[in-house]
Amino acid sequence: MKKLILFVLLALSPLAVQAAEHGPVLLHAPVNAQDKVSLQNGAKLYISYCLGCHAAKYMRYERIASDLQIEPKLVQEYMMFTGDKLGDQMNTKVDPKDQAKWFGAAPPDLTLETRLRSPDWVYSYLLGFYPDEKRPFGVNNHVFPDVAMPHVLADLEKEQTPEAFKQSVGDLVNFMAYMAEPIKTERERLGVFVLIFLAILMIPVWFLNKEYWKDVK
Ligand code: HEC
Question: What span, in angstroms and rounded, lies between the C-alpha atoms of 136 and 148?
Fold first, then answer.
């Protein structure tokens, strides 16, 4: 019995260490690289609510249009700053130096953010704002204490039910995860073909194996 208790404690200790190192317990982000509707909604949200401050300069509008199957014309009309071209990178129009002056910290490029922090972290962060009068924007964050970013989704949160808001943030994080690894959708699709191919290959291999061993027995 003592051994069992010791075993359980040892098995759980990495979890305790992890919790201590990584701070708050994170929510699980609903990431699904195959869900085009969610990714399209996420792209729209990112461009409306985040791109004003956070560039995503390793991504181009053209690639979003083709990967997420959005008409290039719609991307151009509704998602891009006027003057930008389809082949352009997703940049902000504001100088990071000015932003650093305004906010106290420059908003980083977010193309690879979900790989840096994990989708769960970003999801929990975006859902983690709470009122705090002591902070310059009147909000603080459970996941990123004393963050210099305002709660930019506050209006959306007010407009939607809590479930719908969580879904929107989920779509947004899903899009950010796609952006950090755009090849994933393609890789998963290829993976299925590879498995089917291997399954079919097994048939001749099985017969060949039988043929080889026929005379040995
Ligand atoms: C008004 C400008 C502004 C807007 C709009 C904005 N942010 Fe921020 N964001 C910031 C600033 C400033 C920081 C840096 C905070 C710091 O270091 O304290 C930041 C930090 C972050 C971070 C943490 C980066 C890190 O790893 O250190 C994430 C994630 C993030 N923002 C996501 C978003 C998302 C997603 C949106 C759109 C819903 C968004 N932000 C919209 C200003 C903005």
Answer: 8
> Which bin fits 132, alpha (ψ -120 to 50), beta or left (φ > 0)?
beta
- What confidence score (pLDDT) does residue 12 get? 62
Closest by CA position to 124, among listed 32, 25, 50, 46:
25
Output the pLDDT for position 97: 84
* Ligand 1 binding pocket, CB closer than 6 Å: 49-50, 52-54, 103, 105, 107-108, 110, 113, 117, 122, 125-126, 147-150, 152-153, 172
CB 79 within 8 A of CB 175: no
Q: Report which of 173, 182, 156 is spatially closest to residue 122, judged by C-alpha positions.
A: 173
| Tokens describing residue 155 | 């209006």
pLDDT in tens, 52-98: 999 999 999 999 999 999 998 888 888 887 778 899 999 888 888 88
| Cα–Cα distance list, 211 to 15, 25, 197, 208, 215 (Å) | 52, 57, 22, 5, 8
User: Ligand 1 center to residue 65 CA distance, Å?
Assistant: 24
119 in Cβ contact with 143 (< 8 Å): no
Please state, rounded to an integer, the average pLDDT across all residues of the chain: 88
Are 172 and 45 within 8 A, CB to CB? yes
Q: Which conformational region is residue 107 in: left (phi greater than 0), alpha (psi within -120 to 50 degrees), or beta? A: beta
